[in-house]
Amino acid sequence: MSEEGVDLKRRNFLTASTAVIGAVGAGFAAVPFVNSWNPSERAKALGAPEEADIGLLAPGGLLRLKWRGKVCWVVNRTEQSLADMQTLTDKLADPNSDVTSQQPDYCKNDTRSIKPQYSVLVGICTHLGCSPTYRPEIAPADLGPDWRGGFFCPCHGSKFDLAGRVYKGVPAPTNLVVPPHQYLSDDVILIGEDGGEA
């Protein structure tokens, strides 16, 4: 064997070793860079579905929770409030929920819900993003004799019924948003995920 042959083998070995070490080093450098594209744990938690126990929610009661940084409401509507909602059709701007972006298809009905008893809404006014107040009382002096319960936005006077449908002649242009949701049991609701039904 000549010295020249030994040097070539050594050179090839060193070249291959350097390439392997360089590739491993590039991999170690690339992993944190690629991982930085993934959402943080905090961001994942903000978008995560929110589970709520509604078993103890009294008729007429309101449960507030947060999903994606937004306040969401679950209202346990009474039989009377469901009947009263049917009398409001001529006072509402979109009684049939024709603006389909405001609710999943499975909630495009008279009650805008999966179960008529429960209303699930994002508690943000569709006018300028204020949070309306829950006003379940019937015909209070400040809202008039036609008020059958619902949500009143104190910022600019928008009114919504207990299904989140907007009244005519108020600043809010559309109904309140119904988030994707599903019932995990009779007493547990999951807001933010609907099992692919949307």
Q: Supply the helix-strand structural class.
A: alpha+beta
CATH level 1 name of the largest domain: Mainly Beta
Output the CATH homologous superfamily of the largest domain: Rieske [2Fe-2S] iron-sulphur domain
N to C succession of SSEs: HHEEEHEEEEEE
CA distance, first residue to last residue: 75 Å
What is the average per-residue confidence, as pLDDT, rounded to a whole number?
86
Q: Please compute the radius of gyration using only Cα atoms.
A: 28 Å
Strand order of the largest sheet: 1-9-8
In CATH, the topology of the largest domain is named: Rieske Iron-sulfur Protein
> Which overall shape is indicated by the principal axes computed on the Cα atoms?
elongated
Number of individual domains: 2
What do these coordinates show?
It is a single chain. This protein is an alpha+beta fold and 198 residues long. It has 2 domains: 1-38; 44-191, 3-layer Sandwich (Rieske Iron-sulfur Protein), CATH 2.102.10. 24% of the residues lie in helices and 19% in strands. The longest helix is centred in the first third of the chain and has 33 residues, at 3-35. It starts with a helix and ends in a 7-residue tail after the last strand.
